[in-house]
């Protein structure tokens, strides 16, 4: 490792420690030429698969795009950033474990929908309305009704998407 101060080619490691969940190593280094100390971090670099878009274009996986999808869907929703980090980690882990060189963007979109369905119904419907290109309110309502049929276990954990209608047309 080159010294960032004097550019000397040889530095020595004084101390090494694992940080976070053991996925990084922090190293304190010393340069014998200028006597300065500095810190480096070592992380494993994973080769993520190329994303194949619906029109056949290929592009590199971009974590910022994935995070942006979650953040737009969950804008002003009661979901903390730790939950977003967790679902991001889940999807990235699936991508790495597949061992494929390419993956269809549609497949990642389905994973995003599954994670959103699990953590926030409103965020799920927001994402689904764009992802599935709803053309009218009927498609939107059908998706919401299907969601409510699929997720009875979340009853009481999240606000209802459609308020119940009382006799006389009043909403409850």
Structure in words:
The chain is α+β, with helices and mostly antiparallel strands and 172 residues long. It has helices at residues 63-73, 81-98, 105-119, 121-131, 137-150; strands spanning 12-19, 24-30, 37-43, 50-52, 58-59, 102-104. Helix 1 (63-73) packs across helix 4, helix 3 runs antiparallel to helix 4 and helix 4 (121-131) crosses helix 5 (137-150). The model has no long low-confidence stretch (mean pLDDT 84).
Quick summary:
The protein is of the alpha+beta class. The protein contains 5 helices and 6 strands, in the order E-E-E-E-E-H-H-E-H-H-H. It folds into 2 domains: 32 residues; 105 residues.
């Amino acid at each position: 490792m080159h010294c960032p101060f004097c550019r000397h080619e040889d530095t020595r490691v004084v101390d090494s420690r694992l940080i976070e969940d053991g996925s990084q190593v922090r190293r304190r280094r010393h340069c014998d030429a200028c006597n300065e100390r500095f810190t480096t971090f070592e992380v494993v670099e994973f080769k993520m698969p190329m994303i194949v878009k619906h029109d056949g274009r290929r592009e590199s996986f971009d974590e910022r795009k994935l995070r942006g999808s979650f953040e737009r869907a969950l804008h002003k929703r009661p979901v903390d950033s730790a939950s977003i980090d967790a679902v991001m980690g889940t999807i990235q882990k699936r991508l790495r474990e597949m061992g494929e060189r390419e993956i269809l963007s549609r497949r990642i979109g389905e994973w995003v929908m599954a994670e959103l369905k699990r953590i926030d119904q409103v965020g799920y419907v927001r994402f689904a309305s764009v992802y599935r290109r709803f053309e009218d309110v009927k498609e939107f309502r059908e998706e919401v009704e299907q969601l409510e049929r699929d997720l009875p276990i979340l009853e009481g954990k999240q606000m209802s998407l459609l308020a119940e209608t009382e006799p006389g047309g009043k909403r409850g």
